[in-house]
Amino acid sequence: MSESLQDYLKTGQYRLNEYIMELLEKDKMLPDTLAESVMYSMRAGGKRLRPILMLAAFESFGGQGEKVLPVAAALEMVHTYSLIHDDLPAMDDDDYRRGQLTNHKKFGEATAILAGDALLTRSFSVIGQASEIRPDEKVYLMSYLSEAAGATGMIAGQALDMEAEDKESTLYELEQIHNLKTGKLLTYAIVAGAFLAGVKPETLELMKRFGTYIGLIFQIQDDILDVTGDESVLGKPVGSDEVNNKSTYPKLLGLNGAKAQMEKYVDLAHQCLEQADIKSSRLHELTVYLSTRTS
Amino acid sequence: MSESLQDYLKTGQYRLNEYIMELLEKDKMLPDTLAESVMYSMRAGGKRLRPILMLAAFESFGGQGEKVLPVAAALEMVHTYSLIHDDLPAMDDDDYRRGQLTNHKKFGEATAILAGDALLTRSFSVIGQASEIRPDEKVYLMSYLSEAAGATGMIAGQALDMEAEDKESTLYELEQIHNLKTGKLLTYAIVAGAFLAGVKPETLELMKRFGTYIGLIFQIQDDILDVTGDESVLGKPVGSDEVNNKSTYPKLLGLNGAKAQMEKYVDLAHQCLEQADIKSSRLHELTVYLSTRTS
């Protein structure tokens, strides 16, 4: 990763974290335990990949200023809620995330369910209250977020993923799960950023395709790292897909086949960007980063 | 209850049910199990009190036509999600609701969590996609729904209610819980209906007060019925507040004290309506109904 991209990621994370924390600290959430539980998971960090992709898409199409921040924050809140609920005992039953106890391990299941609900609920008014976005733009962004995150999007992906456990999936089924579970929110990031920069409808369609490709790139690299990754860099155990008997790209296509498939998507993603005539190379760089990341 | 009000309630329930079912059946929810789980809880019925109050408020201020229906549907979806999550083992751990198995008993916990998430998520785009509402009105209604349902509203009420279990609450604490847990969404119903009918800001403020009163009336009568109600009419066991050691109005004020408190709120609610100069007696009737209902 180039030093410039590293700085870009750090700056994006910083801006986003500042914005979300300030926003949520002003909320009069009750009771204290619930507020702490919400803040605990929001503070836990992570790459902030979705908001950074939104910022990058916004800037790549000439967007300037802060109007993208509330939408980026809302998206990260939705992503965080989904992690809290996915970690629950009834779902993936995970005790640790990003090196710290999962929300329900720290605050109990009831509070974790409510903290997730609270983040999801709040995300919509974060967009609704944004001062620099027009009402018709807000309606588009809020409705699209609902669609991308709901039972026709991310939630469908999570439910399908659970149903696919201990079953042999086809490549088609695997891609459907990833397109829904991961792809929909990543695509939202790209499309919302481009939309706020005021691109034409045709460009928005191109960005939808680009978003789908980077969702798949992200997921294939995730699967590859679970086979070839370095635990100390990755910060989580490798081989868990094998243990959990999950269908993955390396399992269906072999390791080289999975890499080849990913390279195909990287090419297609670059093509989308070229057709969209963007003014910066940031989204190109991020595409490469997603396909070569080691954690 | 007058025959006219009974018809009014039935007609309202019918309109609302038709609207929601048609809407959700068109959604391409995946997988089938999740779609079934969502439809199961939405079909379970109940009084549809919140949407009916919204319709009544809308009509009382001269609102006509269908523009209120999507907002009423969204509110009922939020209410239904909250019941699914509240019934979960980690929360109230209920096996039955409205005479049928709770969602998690029928579909398992994971699916119930996701079905609740899906209904909450979808509620916002139901408003966002409404064809007869202006974008600025949609933004107000979506943001206000987020606020009323979130960690400064209904979710806060549920969390405070759980914390209050097995503790002696003061009347102040009890009313705070009810104002948040039940009052916020009931108030939303009234305010959104009046707002869509185009009332002045002063009238909206009056309707916020009216909503708070009917929330308290609803809750006190709930507590009273748990002491004096007829199980066969009520459709659920009485005395459960005693068993669960919950703070209630009759416990804090005595049965007669609770009734007197409720009558005070009924008077205040009527006063709000008189000051708001409404054109029909429907909200008056519904106020009386809420304070005298037997189920």
Automatic annotation (TrEMBL), chains A, B:
Enzyme class: transferase
Catalytic activity, reaction form: isopentenyl diphosphate + (2E)-geranyl diphosphate = (2E,6E)-farnesyl diphosphate + diphosphate
PROSITE patterns: POLYPRENYL_SYNTHASE_1 (PS00723), POLYPRENYL_SYNTHASE_2 (PS00444)
InterPro entries xrefs: Isoprenoid_synthase_dom_sf, Polyprenyl_synt, Polyprenyl_synt_CS, Prenyl_diphosphate_synthase
Cellular component aspect of the GO annotation: cytoplasm
E.C. number: 2.5.1.10
Keyword Magnesium: yes
Pfam families: polyprenyl_synt
Keywords: Isoprene biosynthesis, Magnesium, Metal-binding, Transferase
Cofactor section: Mg(2+)
GO terms of molecular function: (2E,6E)-farnesyl diphosphate synthase activity; metal ion binding
GO BP term, example: terpenoid biosynthetic process
PANTHER family: FARNESYL DIPHOSPHATE SYNTHASE (PTHR43281)
Entry's family note: Belongs to the FPP/GGPP synthase family.
Name assigned to this protein: Farnesyl diphosphate synthase
Taxonomic source organism: Terribacillus halophilus
